[in-house]
Amino acid sequence: MNVRDSEVICGLLKNSGYKICGDEKQADVIILNTCSVRQHAEDRVWSQIGSFKKAGNKRLIIGVVGCMAKNYAEKIFERAPDVDFVVGPQDIHKIPEILSKISKDNLFERKVWEVDGSIRPNEIYHNSFYQEKEHAYLVISEGCSNFCSYCVVPFVRGRLRHRELKNIVKEAEDAVAGGLTRITLLGQNVNAYKDGDVNFTKLLQRLDKIAGLKQLTFFTSHPKDTHPDFFKAIRDSEKLLKSLHLPLQSGSDRILKAMNRGYSAKEYLALIDSYRKIVKGALLTSDIIVGFPGESEDDFKQTYDLVKKAEFNAAYIFKYSPRPHTEALKMADDVEKADKEKRHAKLLELQRGISNKKNAK
Ligand code: SAH
Ligand code: SF4
């Protein structure tokens, strides 16, 4: 999502006469597009901001945009005095205007410009700036209303909003007309997509028809909104990759409930079983969190056993990171750091073995 947002920002700036510069030492403007999903992502930004010193380049403008901007607003200036402006994820379309104000008016007052916007104008997605030559990311929905108890996304990116079908189709057709042949659809929960009576399956069927488009894929799918009928659509599509990213998060029902995920381990297993039966040769990947508040050795063992059974082609495994605003923040982060690390390493080792075996095939 952030890769696409960065492209949108670059495209808007290019259209306003800026050049994208390959070397930060030569840049007049540096914009950090930030992520707040885990503490580690934020820590990397804090240390990176510090490396862009203004000493040699007094006119260098530094901006912090994206989820950390929303999360910390004014506090960013306290920790990073060289930052000039802060813009949240729903307001990135205002960046060219903000930059022009800062540079034209020689206004070097540090300021949080916008962090409270709710809707991005659709036009910003139609600036035809893509980093890759043949592949485009295409946003179909913004934000999320699922409120998984560990997750900051609904608070920094706002509630779920769907883009209109006609705008998505236009963006895809324009991308293909411009020479791109592969598209990845993006949303925090793509299977919840809706525009009138068009659901995600119908959206895929519509995009499948675009002449010149060779390959289509999407993420992320949430198990609670993913149904066997949808697997038939994957099977029947000419262009869709036979691949699904379906985050599990935990194999313990107790933890899944505390995470507010809306499915049980048994339901998850039944879902992937039906996926593999319907879509022959299908790839399956997942996300898992270890060390969620209250996770006992037994809960972890249930996750371990499920990962063994599920045989994912690959999985991202994360250590739980307490996040502001979330429900889980009210629970004690009581799994010792050493235990989180042990569980993380153990699961990684298991998954590496499974991935190697699958990839060798
Ligand atoms: N909307 C997607 C992706 C959300 S963020 C989904 O629901 O799957 C990507 C992954 O980051 C999540 O799947 C989760 O495994 C992980 N994650 C999110 N918040 C986290 C936290 N507070 N600590 C550790 N991992 C987290
Ligand atoms: Fe976060 Fe859950 Fe929404 Fe994914 S579905 S973005 S994990 S709240």
Q: What do we call the CATH topology of the largest domain?
A: Transcription Regulator spoIIAA
List the uncertain runs.
none
Give a list of the ligands: S-adenosyl-L-homocysteine, iron/sulfur cluster
Cα-to-Cα separation, first versus last residue? 31 Å
> How many structural domains in the coordinates?
3
- Mean pLDDT equals 93
Structural topology:
Layout: H1 2-15, E1 29-34, H2 39-51, E2 61-66, H3 67-72, H4 75-79, E3 85-87, H5 95-104, E4 111-114, E5 135-139, E6 141-142, H6 153-156, E7 161-162, H7 165-177, E8 182-186, E9 194-195, E10 198-199, H8 200-208, E11 215-219, H9 228-236, E12 243-245, H10 253-258, H11 265-278, E13 283-290, H12 297-310, E14 314-319, H13 337-360
Parallel strand pairs: 1-2, 2-3, 3-4, 5-8, 8-11, 12-13, 13-14
Antiparallel strand pairs: 6-7, 9-10
Helix pairs in contact: 9-11, 12-13
Iron/sulfur cluster (SF4) binds next to helix 6.
Question: What keywords describe this structure?
Answer:
globular, Transcription Regulator spoIIAA, binds iron/sulfur cluster, single chain, 3 domains, alpha/beta, 361 residues, Rossmann fold, 13 helices, binds S-adenosyl-L-homocysteine, three-stranded parallel β-sheet
